[in-house]
Amino acid sequence: MSTQTPDSTPEQRMHPRAILKSSVSVFDDNSKEYLGLLVDCSEQGIMISTYDALTPGTSLALALVDIPPNINGRRTGSCRAEVVWCDKITPSLYGTGCRIAEVDDMLDTMMKSYHQA
Q1: What is the mean pLDDT of residues 94-100?
Q2: Domain topology for 15-114
Q3: What average pLDDT does the structure give for the chain?
Q4: How far apart are CA 86 and CA 49, in angstroms?
Q5: CB contact at 8 A, 114 and 41
Q6: What pLDDT was estimated at residue 67?
Q7: Distance of CA 101 to CAs 2, 70, 110, Å?
């Protein structure tokens, strides 16, 4: 007989999340202000760690920058996203979940590379 505790409930995500193997910096695409780091991503969402709380419902224009292994130079992709949730994860960091609305071709390529093992 198997029992499940609340902690062992399987995730209910529609799309699998990619856990990143390299740092991806996240910037406000309009002001160029640094927002934080990409924690993980799926086809329809991203989680970023930020120093400031972002209000759910906020629409963001984001630029994501990475330096992938075996490539000379960096890649920059852009998207529009809406903040869905924001929780304090340490005394100085917030975890912020966003739903992606629009992705440019470069960010689409970047995100697909994160899903490859």
Answers
A1: 96
A2: Thrombin, subunit H (2.40.10)
A3: 84
A4: 9
A5: yes
A6: 80
A7: 40, 30, 16
